Amino acid sequence: MTQRRLPSGQGPARRPSAARRSPTSGARATTGTKARTRNTGPVRAPSSRRTPGNDGGEAAKRTDAPRPRALTGRATILIAVIVALALAYTYPLRTYLDQETQIAQMEQSQAKQRETIADTAKELEKWQDDEYLRIQAREKYFYVRPGETPLLVYPDPEGAARDADEKAPAAAPDRWYDTLWSSVQAANAEPAN
After folding, report:
1. What is the distance between the alpha carbons of residues 59 and 79, in angstroms, rounded to a whole number?
2. What does the alpha-carbon distance between residue 139 and residue 123 come to, in Å, rounded to a whole number?
3. Is 177 within a domain?
4. Which residues, given as ranges, of the chain have pLDDT below 50?
C-alpha cells in the first residue's frame, strides 16, 4: 500500500517497524487486541478513502488546496512599473500631439500665404501691361488722352427730371383696401335725402 503525502508537502510519519520494537512490544502484539491498540507511533485521523467494506457509505471528503493570492509581489511590482511608464510617456505624447497640431496649423497658414503671393504676382503682372494702366487711369482718375472729351454721368434722377422738365414719377397707386375705405368714407359723408 502506498502512503499519501499531506497537502503541506511532508510525507506521513513513519511507524516503527517490527525490528525496532522492543521484545515485549512484539509479544504484546501477538497476544491480543489490547496490544494492537497500543501503538507508539503518531495517531492518524481515520482515512476518508473508500475501503472495500465501505462501498455504499458516506462520500469521501475532498480537501481544497490553498488558493494562491490574486496579486503576488511580482505582479504588484510589474503593475507599478507599467503605471509609472504610462505616466512617464503621457507628457511626451501630449507634447508630440500639440506639436503635430501646430505643424498642421502652420502648413495651412503657409498655403494661404502662397495663395496670397500668387494673387499678388498676378496683379503685378497686370500692372506691368501699358493698356491695363490706361484703363485704370481712366476709371479711377478720369484721365483722358489728348483730343478726347471726357463725359461724366452722375446718377441723379431728380436732377435729370428737373432738367428735362418732366414731372417726378407718379405716386404708387393706392392699395385695394385704401380704395375700399375711402369709398366707405365718401358714402358716409353724403347727406341723407
Report:
1. 44
2. 17
3. no
4. 19, 25-35
Q: How far apart are CA 165 and CA 168, in angstroms?
A: 9
Query: Is 89 part of a structural domain of the chain?
Result: yes
Asked whether residue 175 is domain-assigned, the answer is no
Under DSSP, is residue 125 helix (H, G, I), strand (E, B) or coil? helix
**CB of 108 closer than 8 Å to CB of 116:** no
pTM of structure: 0.35
Report the pLDDT value the prediction gives residue 62, as an integer from 0 to 100. Answer: 77
Those residues with Cβ within 8 angstroms of residue 105's Cβ, 6 or more apart along the chain or in another chain: none
Distance CA 137, CA 62 (A): 110
What is the count of structural domains for the chain?
1
- What range defines the domain where residue 120 resides? 74-140
pLDDT of residue 33: 47
Strand (E) or helix (H) holding 73: helix 73-128
**Long-range contacts made by residues 57-62, C-beta under 8 angstroms, separation at least 24?**
none
Per-residue cell: 146 = 489728348
Give residue 111's identity as a one-letter amino acid code: A
Evaluate whether residue 180 is within a structural domain. no
Count H helices and E strands in the chain, helices first.
6, 0
